[in-house]
Design brief:
alpha+beta, single chain, 2 domains, binds succinyl-coenzyme A, Aminopeptidase, Barwin-like endoglucanases, ten-stranded mixed beta sheet, 338 residues, EC 2.3.1.109
Length: 338
């Protein structure tokens, strides 16, 4: 059984393995010891912090196999981005060039550089090691964050978004970046992505084109990938779309991958989740649920078959699930059907 829990300092080697396996373009997990250690300690501090409004907290969690102790993947939430480091994106908008006299009506798209998501909550760092993919594991990693958003709303913004990895090849070359590089930068996408991942984003402000860019002036290859996701990221996008996330015209400034967003209260799993009292008992329910405890610092979530007694507002859970979530009879749990 996989259980989600906050990352600990002792998970460093496993986090490094996830960083290595996640490959190019996975900005939030660069293969960089100092940065990964920094992310772990920042998360440990964030989980301990008493919070009444979202700030610079970053919550990083891992999925642990309860039988082997192996770490299967990562999942994260940044409470409010852009407060200490600027967060950039391009917004795609339309401009009409019209001449009645010549009977010409051209609709062109323009990319505008900005910081529109400043203060919003980002769900991020979703990675499941290949041997653990399929079944309910990916859904557990992605959706456990929505149980957290529902249970602890004061820690998060009203707007939740995710930056989806854009198109790049197996060597890390991005067609969008190739165009930007040719005209504005002289460094490779992998280096730009790495510098961003380790928080050294100053070069963006220095070198990025600040004036709007007409999309029809970009190379055909660059235009073709605007708003497209990396093939390995399609399942992640599908899960967010099913929750109600949509792209409202923002794309990543390096690989042009889409940014998707949803109001917290409109996320399907936030809306559908409910709390109940845990009752540890044998049951015969065949319904899969995502279930978490309601302890923030000791947050734990898993996917399991749960019996729900609506009249008594009880969640009937097996001993194994109770142990995985550190629950005793009578504890409060939050759950949502899968
Ligand atoms: C994203 C995960 C964790 C998902 O795990 P799994 O692959 O086991 O998921 P799954 O349950 O098999 O699939 C989830 C849903 O996607 C559908 N699906 C599967 N393959 C698909 C494809 N090629 N195109 C479209 N949909 C697809 C499945 O049918 C299922 O839909 P149904 O629900 O209908 O059954 C994994 O694939 C992964 O680690 N990918 C590589 C890393 C990555 O690119 N991560 C995202 C980076 S971007 C990021 O981190 C921000 C986003 C975020 O944090 O959420």
């Amino acid at each position: 059984m996989l259980v989600i829990r906050p990352i600990q300092e002792s998970d460093f080697d496993a986090l490094m393995l996830c960083a290595e396996e996640s490959g190019h373009g996975f900005t939030s997990l660069p293969v960089d010891e100092e940065m990964l250690k920094g992310r772990i300690s920042h998360s440990v501090e964030s989980f301990k912090k008493a919070v009444t409004a979202p700030g610079t907290e970053g919550y990083l969690m891992v999925a642990e196999d309860t039988e082997t102790g192996e770490i299967a993947g990562t999942t994260g939430i940044e409470a409010a981005i852009g407060l200490d480091n600027p967060f950039y994106s391009y917004h795609i908008s339309k401009v009409v060039h019209h001449s009645r006299r010549l009977n010409v009506h051209n609709i062109v798209e323009v990319l505008t550089f900005g910081n529109d998501y400043t203060g919003a909550t980002e769900v991020c760092t979703l990675f499941l090691r290949p041997e653990f993919r399929g079944g309910l594991n990916g859904k557990l990693l992605s959706k456990c964050r929505f149980l957290m958003l529902a249970e602890f709303p004061e820690r998060f913004s009203d707007v939740i978004f995710a930056e989806m990895r854009g198109v790049s090849d197996e060597n890390g070359n991005s067609p969008f970046w190739a165009w930007l590089k040719e005209h504005f930068f002289s460094i490779d996408f992998t280096l730009a992505d790495y510098l961003t991942g380790i928080g050294q984003k100053g070069f963006i402000a220095d070198l990025m084109p600040k004036l709007p860019i007409y999309v029809n002036l970009l190379s055909e290859e660059a235009r073709a990938v605007i708003g497209q996701v990396h093939e390995k990221t399609r399942p992640a996008l599908k899960m967010l779309e099913k929750e109600g996330f949509t792209c409202r015209g923002h794309v990543d400034i390096f690989d042009a991958g889409p940014t998707v967003e949803c109001l917290r209260q409109n996320i399907s799993s936030v809306r559908r989740s409910f709390t109940a009292t845990a009752e540890i008992t044998d049951h015969s329910s065949a319904q899969d649920y995502l279930i978490s405890n309601t302890d923030f610092a000791g947050f734990r979530a898993t996917a399991a078959k749960i019996g729900v007694d609506q009249e008594r507002n009880r969640a009937l859970i097996s001993k194994e699930v109770a142990n995985a979530l550190h629950l005793v009879d009578g504890d409060s749990v939050r759950l949502v059907s899968l």
